[in-house]
């Protein structure tokens, strides 16, 4: 049986053997740059793991895994432009290292190359279903980004709206990757759908864990400043849940802290974090994350392969959801 590290090595070797070293350099060099900034490679590895449930040799699925990773990084390049972000994984973003026009054009051509790699798949009869799955996820990722942009100026955001946004922005691509892996493996359509739902629920739980760590994580383990979401006044699950369960007095206190830009940032973050603790938001967030994790495992249990072969997906979920970084 292959390990998580085995899948990562196979994927990275394939990516390294298919670099974007061609003319014009100004268009393609930024693609190699963003693809080699690191990251968890969660989506391509999940696709390969889904394929690996049915076949020991994963080479036929590698073009699809690369397509998913190219598309994911295309969204990062354009998201960084939208967010005016100077850094990505502690390195300059593409539009900062080069310029805005390069960021737009390099991102555009990455989207096209994602389709180029999908077109290399040998399962011709399943290609329409694979493309339909990919296209649906691509559209929904854009919809999720737009909702996220809308929430920045939207005075009232409901928890269900937020959960739908992170489903679109974060989890549907992971879900699609796993479904595509199953389709390339020629698994049953029932198994492919269970893998989609497994990925969708794990993706939502992953984002809830990320929200939790941003506020309650250990700064020495988290790898970035704790309280960043609070500093930016982001409407995360934690804040929305606090506003939902708080008494009128506590709600007003929280809103006052959120809107008070005169306080020193560290003092403001500490005061809001303490208010969230008083409202038991740390525990409520864990419970919501566990709810989605349980749904994910129900779908994993329904897949028609042995428990031994499915164990690697359980390990992947545990790694993503029990992390402290």
Can you lay out the helices and strands and say which pair or pack?
Layout: H1 4-16, H2 25-35, H3 42-52, H4 62-83, E1 87-88, E2 91-92, H5 94-97, H6 100-118, H7 127-153, H8 159-184, H9 189-216, H10 219-222, H11 228-231, H12 237-245, H13 248-259, H14 265-278, H15 281-301, H16 307-321
Antiparallel strand pairs: 1-2
Helix pairs in contact: 1-3, 1-4, 2-6, 3-4, 3-8, 3-16, 4-6, 4-7, 4-8, 7-8, 8-9, 9-15, 12-13, 12-15, 13-14, 15-16
Provide a concise account of the structure shown.
This protein is an all-alpha fold. It has helices at residues 4-16, 25-35, 42-52, 62-83, 94-97, 100-118, 127-153, 159-184, 189-216, 219-222, 228-231, 237-245, 248-259, 265-278, 281-301, 307-321; strands spanning 87-88, 91-92.
Descriptive overview:
- With 325 residues, the chain is an all-alpha fold.
- The protein is 74% helix and 1% strand.
- The protein contains 16 helices and two strands.
- It has helices at residues 4-16, 25-35, 42-52, 62-83, 94-97, 100-118, 127-153, 159-184, 189-216, 219-222, 228-231, 237-245, 248-259, 265-278, 281-301, 307-321; strands at 87-88, 91-92.
- Strands 1-2 form a two-stranded antiparallel sheet.
- Strand 1 and strand 2 form a beta hairpin.
- Helix 2 packs across helix 6, helix 7 packs antiparallel against helix 8 (159-184) and helix 9 (189-216) packs antiparallel against helix 15.
- The longest helix has 28 residues, at 189-216.
- The radius of gyration is 20 Å and the shape is globular.
- The chain starts with a helix and ends with a helix.
């Amino acid at each position: 049986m292959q390990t998580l590290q085995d899948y990562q090595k196979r994927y990275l070797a394939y990516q390294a053997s298919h670099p974007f070293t061609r003319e014009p350099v100004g268009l393609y060099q930024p693609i190699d740059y963003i693809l080699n900034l690191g990251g968890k490679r969660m989506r391509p590895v999940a696709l390969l793991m889904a394929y690996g449930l049915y076949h020991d040799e994963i080479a036929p699925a590698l073009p699809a895994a690369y397509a998913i990773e190219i598309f994911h990084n295309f969204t990062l390049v354009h998201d960084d432009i939208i967010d005016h972000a100077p850094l990505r994984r502690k390195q300059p973003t593409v539009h900062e290292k080069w310029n805005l026009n390069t960021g737009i054009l390099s991102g555009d051509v990455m989207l096209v190359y994602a389709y180029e790699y999908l077109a290399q798949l040998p399962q011709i009869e399943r290609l329409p279903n694979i493309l339909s799955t990919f296209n649906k996820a691509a559209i929904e990722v854009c919809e999720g980004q737009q909702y996220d942009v809308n929430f920045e100026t939207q005075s009232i955001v409901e928890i269900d709206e937020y959960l739908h946004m992170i489903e679109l922005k974060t989890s549907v691509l992971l879900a699609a990757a796993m479904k595509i892996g199953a389709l390339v493996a020629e698994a049953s359509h029932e198994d492919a759908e269970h893998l989609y739902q497994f990925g969708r629920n794990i993706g939502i739980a992953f984002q809830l864990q990320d929200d939790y760590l941003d506020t309650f994580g250990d700064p020495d383990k988290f790898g970035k400043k704790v309280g960043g979401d609070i500093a930016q006044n982001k409407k995360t699950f934690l804040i929305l849940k606090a506003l939902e369960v708080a008494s009128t007095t506590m709600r007003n206190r929280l809103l006052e802290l959120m809107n008070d830009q005169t306080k020193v940032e560290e003092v403001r973050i500490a005061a809001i974090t303490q208010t969230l603790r008083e409202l038991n938001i740390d525990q409520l967030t864990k419970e919501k994350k566990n709810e989605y994790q349980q749904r994910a495992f129900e779908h994993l249990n329904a897949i028609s392969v042995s428990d031994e072969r499915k164990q690697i997906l359980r390990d992947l979920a545990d790694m993503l959801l029990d992390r402290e970084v």
